Give the backbone structure.
Amino acid sequence: MTRTVTMWLLIGLFGFVLTPWYMTDAGFWGFSWISGVASDGESGSAFFLMLLHGRAWLFPPLIAFALSGVALLLIKNPVQKARVIVGITGVGLLFTMMQGLAIVRGGPRFFESFYSTLGGVDGQLGFGAGAGIVLFSLLFMLTTAYSSAGKGSGDAFVVSLIGLIIALVGVFVFYPVSHILVNAFRVPGGEFSATDFLTRLFSSELWHIGCITFSGSCGPAINSLVLAILTGASTVLLGLAFALIFTRTNFIAKPLLRVLTVIPIITPPFVIGLALILLFGRTGSATALFADLFGWEKTRWIYGFGGVYLAQVLSFTPIAFLVLIGVVEGISPSMEEASQTLDANAWQTFRYVSFPLMRPGLANAFLLGFIESLADFGNPLVLGGGRFNVLSTEIYFSIVGTVADPAKAAILAMALLMLTLGAFLIQRKWVGTKSYATVTGKADSGQHAALSRGVKFAAYTTALPWAAFTAVVYSMIAFGSFVKLWGYDHTFTFEHYIRAFGIKHTDFGWKLKGVAWDSYFTTLEIATIAAPLTAIVGLGTAYLLVRQNFFGKNAFEFSTMLSFAIPGTVIGVSYILAFNFPPVELTGTSIILIIVFVFRNMPVGVRGGIAAMSQLDKSLDEASITLGANSFTTVRRVIRPLMGPAILAALTYSFVRAITSVSAVIFLVSARHNMATSFIVGRVENGEFGIAIAYSAVLIFTMLFAIILLQLLIGKRKLRRTDRVAKAH
Amino acid sequence: MTTPTEGSVVFKNVVKKYGNVTALKPLNLSIEPGKLVTLLGPSGCGKTTTLRLIAGLEAATSGNIIIGGEDVTHLSATYRKVSMVFQSYALFPHMTVVENVAYGLTVKKMPKNEAHQKAEQGLELVGLKGFGARLPSELSGGQQQRVAVARAIVLEPEVLLLDEPLSNLDAKLRRHVREEIRQIQQNLGLTAVYVTHDQEEAMAVSDTIIVMKDAEIAQIGTPRDLYEKPNSSFIADFIGDANLIDCDVTHTDGNQSDIVVAGTKLSLKTPANGTGAGKLVIRPHQVILSNEKTETGFEGHVTYAAYLGNMTQYTVDGPLGQLFVISNVSESPIKMGDTVSINFKDNDIRLVDI
Amino acid sequence: MKKKTLLSAVALTAVLSAGSVYAGELNVVCSNEQDWCDLMAGNFEDKTGHTVNMVRKSTGETLAQVRAEAGNPKIDVWWGGTGDPHLIAAAEGLTQASGVDTSDLLGWAQNLATISEGRTIGIHLGVLGVAYNREILEEKGIAPPACWKDLTDPRFKGEIQVANPNSSGTAYTELATVVQVFGEDDAFKLLIEIGKNVNSYTKSGSAPSKAAARGETGVSIGFEHDMVKLRRKGFPLEIVSPCEGTGYEVGGVSIIKGAKNFDAAKQWVEFVLSAEAQSAGPQVGVYNVPSNSNATIPAEAPSVESIKLIDYDFATYGSTDTRARLLARWDSEVKPK
């Protein structure tokens, strides 16, 4: 412990004395701060700011480092030493953060008189490199010491990971979200009231059930709930059907099917909705076809529940599939074989062995579909028509509508969170505490059971028509990018691609002339940075949740779901409210985009990771640890290789979501960092479907390429020499 | 309590609680170096918890654990010089056999070539030379088990822990593998702690057996001690077969005890812990049945007889209740339905639970 | 030790990479069409040498962002979009007077500046109108509308689409226009009658005209420049300016309070109000009426002379109180239950 703590102490001191404490306009990597670090009032290090610029309130880290150093040298008893350092660094962290919150750009915010006794307090900028280094080193000193203080599992890696994730979730989820949720308790006029809050939260405006009792329409909360349940259930069903076809049958066109199951997830927003309108709208091709064939009336059924539901199931089935394929694949063949040797037939084996073992996967897939549906905003916007209001669109318009009502937005967000929490708790109860480990250390070489005739038939009849439907929708989209005026003038043209991605040869070589290049590269760059970070944070969290026991684990688990459950609009606005001001000032940078993606998409990594990791027998970890590997090596050499599909899913999903998500980024994009979706939405709003779809098509191909690349890099788990499927009998 | 020596495991007042549930009452034990010690007991007795405490996979609630003279109570499993063979083998399915065996070595930064060489030696030791390139899924259960053993011993641990290592094997293989394990342990002079619920297995492999019951130690001793000198009816019943008969001790002087059983006074050449109600432990082969009526014996009725080649098993009803009897005498076999007289080889009879 | 380094290297890198806002440049949020935004930014850069960082966001989103960033804005100037949110921002003290000379501007543009004490200035005028899909109406044998009152006729049953004034500024302009044309009580009676023919109150203001262009609805209410644009693309849209008189929106430009590049922002405001800059509109399909009296009016722009334009009272109908009252009444009387 002493060695690690000393290392962090030195890193922290380095940050305190030699790097700029504040975030400067020139950025860190330009290194232009070097000249000013010992003198300048802006790019100076904390140490010199204290000495030369009267910023005495920057003292807490220095004291913490000094006292920790003393403790390291003088205290002999290791447990006692660790406890003392935990105390010192804890207090140091607290005070360092408090000074940041208390003294902002305009000067002190709290305890003015106290600070004024310290002399010239003229405000300060946001935390920069130096502050970051100091805070992280204090945090890791604390966690390392804590692990040696006879608490926790005694494993510094695990404790540090817990500390890091709690700190990150605290700063990037709770801190911003609290900014906006506080509004829920505010009555018009600015006063706070708890009773008012409850009456508004449970008002009939939100929860009336007219559509169920055939007496009008339903409240947005009920609409959201019904939609989310149906979407969640349908995506799980379809995802399971696809996963079964992939792992348990010898279906010929698997690669094609695979593409069809992935494409919807990589489709930018609005595109599916538009395609559905062109198919099933009043003048849509399918509508016209059915009208000609069967004389059906041309109606507007697509605008409302039906359309939104259809679009959501199209959009979210791949998520269920991604979660379920890992789970279905991971079920140990020997368990199925055991069942068959007990004279169970294929159906009984599926019903009583395979299916129950899929429970965590099914539950997690449902939860994801449910939450995605609740938070989805693009599809209800395009297809909801005037009557089918859901919470997410209501929230959006109570923020950006003609009358901004932050209190209403907060209340609606609370209602949405209530639904999520409910689903989360029910899911927990259903999965229960049974063991679902199927990859044990005892290797088996069996074959996956073939599906019973009935299950196979059901899987085919569910999945194949859906795949065909997806194929039709996407042919429509591809078609739309090559015609002059989608839905009206179908003259073939390359014009949209040229406008978006044109390249021109000039005297100075090739130039990117297309209007989309800028946002295209920014998007790729940000997604490429965000995806691995998301996977690491998500799977790291999953590892803690499945494999480690610590105080407050349930609350921790739910808190990691929070940012996912809150609609992007709310997250976007709360990020501005929280990160536009010191101590953490990030608006206008690309970091805020990366962070918002990491913390919004992390829950998918967590869910997928939990599902996959609960299939790995714990004795594998324990074997590794008793063989002298630490937790980190265990994660790296044992868990990670066995988690291939989950990692692939997390990476793919977070990469893709960083490219396709829109609601959160719309507030956070800036001129320098514009994102593809924000560009596309602008074009759609402007009625320029052609270029929007051409751009989308290019994005889809980019993402497909990236996914294939990832698949080649990460590959499959090598659990058995061959993954065979028994011949159907 | 012996003073801790190199290679030994010492527990000082170790307690383990999960919330309000006590998994281990204050436990004191000391394991001598080079010995194979078995933790034996019914499920839920705390034997696996004890093993995991030694491994460092569980943290003690209080007390101290000393391994090789070093207090490791707060040391995580990674840094303890113990290795463990798991009930499920816990072979890493994505690594080949040799990679599995070399894992612990490479983790300790041994160069890959060297580690693989040592791993091959380890495999040779367990008779799996040439299997290194296979995946665990391509081995039989017994072979996987031996890979798990090889993986644990190539690290030359101070203590080798085995958690029900044979429970996944069939009966014949079990006997073979346990002999192998015992041989390797003795050849290498390893200190080993072995957990099992199978008393026969425990008797066959152990230097010392620690029988546990209800989160504490019931008795420690060599297999012979436990069998011949059980300190309770639980031990007597758990180690081997025993007939337990209620009795009343009226007098004892350290070598000789007078008892009353089924209304009959007997004088036995065995000590008792005191006087009062107790239990008489009679092993099945200590009962002598005869067709002729004897002076001292009880009269009984044979309700079941089974000839097993090298011995005959009987169930006899009589004033002492139902007795289970094994006889090696092959001549003049007693048949079912016979009335017999029952006598004991009284020098091996024990008095417990007084 | 190595593991910790790895664990936190990522986090540290993220912290260290943090740049900040870039001074010495101009940060513009544009609420106009993307092409118009790009063209003007390019022209401004060519003319002044400033670097323009521009992003396009809708008015509602921009207002929400400006509110959230109040005190430490990352935006210098907000250009385009209907005047209402600009007026709201001015009233909430989120923007500041630019002090730019408005003498060349048309009356309605100066009017916006007067109401807002110079905080926002009119840049263009967009007329509220009704569009119908020629092909659909012919197919169904429905006579086209000419007046607001026509829209109450049962022949349009299920064929009219208009946005919800709670979410759309366009629809609020329509609500306020009808109130100003007919008087509040009669206006609501009319809206209730029209409501019987409305198939959907959309969220977005431009959605109804797009739906009409593709025949998803027969008739839409919205801004005429959106409709002109769709017609220019080839959709069978016909545009009608209601005979009783119609309202309009005035697009605004505002400098955000606390802007870090005030001088460049002021230059931007001067630039977008100039005749030269405004005359470039038709190049990228912008067909609204420019505010500079010397700018060329595009031929496709609704001719203000032939339309009966009401004298839209921005001061009254842009105020938060009137807005809240009208919307509440709309919710209780017009909104479908």
Q: What stands out?
A: The domain at 24-126+249-302 of chain C is CATH 3.40.190.10 (D-Maltodextrin-Binding Protein; domain 2). Chain C is about 45% helix and 20% strand. Chain C has a mean pLDDT of 86.
